[in-house]
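Lab meeting notes turned into a lecture example. A postdoc, R.K., suggested we walk through two folding results consecutively so the class can see how the record format repeats. The first protein's sequence and structure tokens come next.
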Amino acid sequence: MASLFLCLPISLCTFLDVNKKGVLRFGRQILVAAIAAILIWTLIAMLFEEKFIYFPTRYPGGLYEESRFIPDVVDCWITTEDSVRIHAWFAPSDSAIATLVMSHGNAGNISHRIDIIRRLQSSGFNVLMFDYRGYGRSEGSPSESGIYKDGRATFDYARSLRGVDTNKIIVWGTSLGGAVAVDVATQRRPAGMILESTFSSAADVAKVAYPFLPVHLVIQTRLNSFDKIPDVHIPILCMHGDRDSIIPFELGKKLHERANPPKEFYTIRGADHNDTYIVGGKEYIQTVKEFVGRVVRGKPSKP
């Protein structure tokens, strides 16, 4: 009997030792699996990087039949510096305040932006909005260098349009288009720039979208407006919804803070990513008109 009690501590120690080794082995397996998963998903993000960035809808997909509701809209075909033919719409306005050259976001095509084109046109602006290569009726496939070329070609085309005052051209970039507008502003000389719901860099967006993956360290796409915007010396209006669920409000502020004056920041209260002009309503349009009015009159922006 005594020998039985003497053996119990030894048996218990053996059990605990075996159990501890099992727990450690299981922990190591979990760690290895987690590291493997991180590496695999990071590799997937690298291999299919452009698929995670560009979501084009090619013609005839979209709402092209609705273009009849844009008064006097003109189909434009623009050839880029690398001989890619891209499509744009020009919506003229009588006695226009200015011409807006608009770069849209990463999804759909220009036919999904008919409502905002009409609102801006009816507010007194010429509007020239283009589709990136691979979007809508434009040729080719999207890439970072390619969409920059598309932006520059469209700006140059705007200068050739009849009825456009070349001293009153404003580049406007929404979301992905913000990176395009900033790049254009470093290569050309627009009168001013409007940045809407955009971001500082692709790496900063990747940190938010993939917080547990080191994607921001390995992606090749830069879209680095943060480094470019110090080279822009024109009036800038930044607009961002404070409930943006796709591009964090803080990234819009970060880019604005990096920009040179004169500059303004308009917080669109209650707006998400794609409803800024709807939620902003009359205040949104009025903010744009006042900013552009000051730019074309040569007056400084509000502090």
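The second example is placed directly after the first for contrast:
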Amino acid sequence: MKKTAIVKFFRRLQAMDPHPRTELEYTNPYTLLVAVVLSAQATDAGVNKATRALFKIADTPQKMLRLGLEKLKEHIKTIGLFNTKAKNVMALSQILVAQHGGQVPHTREDLQALPGVGRKTANVVLNVAYGQPTMAVDTHIFRVSNRTGLARGKDVLAVEQALEKAVPPEFAQHAHHWLILHGRYTCKARKPLCTVCVLRDLCAYPDKTILPE
């Protein structure tokens, strides 16, 4: 996609939602980190339902450690892979207390050293909690970037790197949120809603939904 088209692409998404936010509910960097860890292979809505009560009593790593593994499992048992995720949350909480003074690190390297935290999770925390212009590529962003021709790549890292080159600095802070939301609600996997898509004329997807005559 040409630079002029990319600018139009993001200006249209910006016009629809000037200040996009993650749909995960959180109160501070720690609860954001936990929510993102729990969201792997789960829906944001499902995670929010489980964490509303949890974060009222455990919104710091110290409180989470006092809560304990078994009680944590009770709170998140409706989330897929909850046993493994609970162990990771307890382990990362212990590391935060022991090595980071109970604070969530500001670097990708330190974040990815935490149990259950991969590159995507680290990028979300850096972007949402600390305002860094990272590209947290999930399945939605991977699909939208490749389908539209915005930033093609064979894997998530390739797409992330392509987005970092393609996205103009003025849009970098919110780009990954706009792309996630567009993929979640408009550019859907099986049946993209091309007829109502504001990016239709900029998109390189050859199998667009046909507009009725």
